[in-house]
Amino acid sequence: MKIILKIWRQKNRQDKGEFCDYVLEDVTRDMSFLEMLDMLNNKLVKQGDRAVEFDHDCREGICGQCGVMINGIAHGSLKNTTTCQLHMREFKDGDTIYVEPFKASAFPVVRDLKVDRSSLDHIIVSGGYVSVDTGQAPEANNIPVTYEEAESAFDAAACIGCGACVASCKNSSAALFTGAKITHLARLPQGEKETASRTMAMVDQMEQENFGHCSNTEACQVECPENISVLTIARMNYEYNRAKILFKK
Amino acid sequence: MIWFIKNSVTRKNLMALTGLFLSFFLIVHLAGNLQLLLPEVQAKLQYNAYSQFLGGNPLVILISFVLYACIILHTVDAIYLGIKRKKANGVSCSKDKRGRASTWYSRHMMALGIIVFVFLVIHFKDYWYRYKFGELPLDENGNKDLYTLVIVSFEQLWYVILYVIAIVALGYHLLHGVFSAHRSIGLYHPVYNSIIKVLGIIFALVITIGYIIIPIFIYINHQT
Ligand code: FES
């Protein structure tokens, strides 16, 4: 099928950037969205033009590297799907597709569709871990964890850190990402102990990275490839308040 | 102290707590105003006596200061977060379809809030200011005649329309605000969240309908 692409091209961080039009004739329904972009890049390279840069890694929907705004929606209109798992069968012959990078002050565009999401890494570095040496994989039954707790921790841990929540949020808030990380660790005995200091550190880091506030529009959960619950944000707020009121070093 | 001012979680807490207090006040205010629907002679004396009582009660005066503080803090906080939002957004998308994922009123709390705020200024000027600092005639019991002031204003159609628009904006503001406030202060339990969501909708409906009935009732009743 024929696809008309309007792709955001930007040479570097300073460049203003603009949409460029491309037409692809032989797109098949079974191609993934990224394969379609590969096809375009092949064509561009053959012509001697610069390829469109975009992030990707696993192409299985599990690493969180890919992510662009497709027709104004993070990862495109198919719900709970990453860009790499979106297929061209979602589009019709002759469709025009706008492709833009995730936009937020905390995600500066590096080039074309590629953004710098280190701000999310900084949040993790500030406290998204347990500070004990785990050594080798321990015996699984040494620390009892109930089925419900494990499941709920895993629901939050499913966050792949793609940044679609930030891109979908009218305030460019990273509350869903940070909330998911905090909830994940707070639900497990290994992580629970440091919840207070971790929450304060991660929330403070989130502030410093120039993310916006959360106004509970819940758009993040709707567009999240992993359908992370917005209640993790409430959990973050709860843990933060609790820590500020009760926690003493 | 800086963390308190700068941190968006605490700022949202402040937003939530002031908002919840203002929501609570709406119930009390509505209960008082519903007296306007009583038969005219009784309504007049009762309403004026009620207003007189409120104005003279030290506890009520104290609460009223909390109320003014809440309005100011809620507004200042909204401006602060609005600026923060602008900064965080950077360049916006050229094609923006993000709206599909959330309700329009949850995205436009600021606009709804501005409508309510403008209305509040008018409301304060027309009733509060004139009652407190203006010269009002006295009723049979010697109380300031706020009742007649209210009735006369609601005999004008444009005033009723203005009032209804503002209340509808307030209704949508509450529809998102009440449940959002609970989230902001950290209510994360799914069951309580569903309960709060339903209660929030009922609350917004009751407040909206309750406040809208009054001017319309008065307007229709005083058409000759
Ligand atoms: S490339 Fe890994 S999630 Fe899409």
UniProtKB/TrEMBL annotation, chain A:
<dbReference type="InterPro" id="IPR012675">
    <property type="entry name" value="Beta-grasp_dom_sf"/>
</dbReference>
<dbReference type="GO" id="GO:0022904">
    <property type="term" value="P:respiratory electron transport chain"/>
</dbReference>
<dbReference type="InterPro" id="IPR017896">
    <property type="entry name" value="4Fe4S_Fe-S-bd"/>
</dbReference>
<dbReference type="InterPro" id="IPR006058">
    <property type="entry name" value="2Fe2S_fd_BS"/>
</dbReference>
<dbReference type="InterPro" id="IPR025192">
    <property type="entry name" value="Succ_DH/fum_Rdtase_N"/>
</dbReference>
<dbReference type="InterPro" id="IPR009051">
    <property type="entry name" value="Helical_ferredxn"/>
</dbReference>
<dbReference type="GO" id="GO:0009055">
    <property type="term" value="F:electron transfer activity"/>
</dbReference>
<dbReference type="Pfam" id="PF13183">
    <property type="entry name" value="Fer4_8"/>
</dbReference>
<feature type="domain" description="4Fe-4S ferredoxin-type">
    <location>
        <begin position="150"/>
        <end position="179"/>
    </location>
</feature>
<dbReference type="InterPro" id="IPR050573">
    <property type="entry name" value="SDH/FRD_Iron-Sulfur"/>
</dbReference>
<dbReference type="Pfam" id="PF13085">
    <property type="entry name" value="Fer2_3"/>
</dbReference>
<comment type="similarity">
    <text>Belongs to the succinate dehydrogenase/fumarate reductase iron-sulfur protein family.</text>
</comment>
<dbReference type="GO" id="GO:0009060">
    <property type="term" value="P:aerobic respiration"/>
</dbReference>
<dbReference type="InterPro" id="IPR036010">
    <property type="entry name" value="2Fe-2S_ferredoxin-like_sf"/>
</dbReference>
<protein>
    <submittedName>
        <fullName>Succinate dehydrogenase / fumarate reductase iron-sulfur subunit</fullName>
    </submittedName>
</protein>
<dbReference type="GO" id="GO:0051537">
    <property type="term" value="F:2 iron, 2 sulfur cluster binding"/>
</dbReference>
UniProtKB/TrEMBL annotation, chain B:
<feature type="transmembrane region" description="Helical">
    <location>
        <begin position="59"/>
        <end position="83"/>
    </location>
</feature>
<feature type="transmembrane region" description="Helical">
    <location>
        <begin position="157"/>
        <end position="175"/>
    </location>
</feature>
<protein>
    <submittedName>
        <fullName>Succinate dehydrogenase / fumarate reductase cytochrome b subunit</fullName>
    </submittedName>
</protein>
<keyword id="KW-1133">Transmembrane helix</keyword>
<keyword id="KW-0472">Membrane</keyword>
<dbReference type="InterPro" id="IPR034804">
    <property type="entry name" value="SQR/QFR_C/D"/>
</dbReference>
<dbReference type="GO" id="GO:0016020">
    <property type="term" value="C:membrane"/>
</dbReference>
<feature type="transmembrane region" description="Helical">
    <location>
        <begin position="104"/>
        <end position="124"/>
    </location>
</feature>
<keyword id="KW-0812">Transmembrane</keyword>
<dbReference type="InterPro" id="IPR011138">
    <property type="entry name" value="Cytochrome_b-558"/>
</dbReference>
<feature type="transmembrane region" description="Helical">
    <location>
        <begin position="195"/>
        <end position="220"/>
    </location>
</feature>
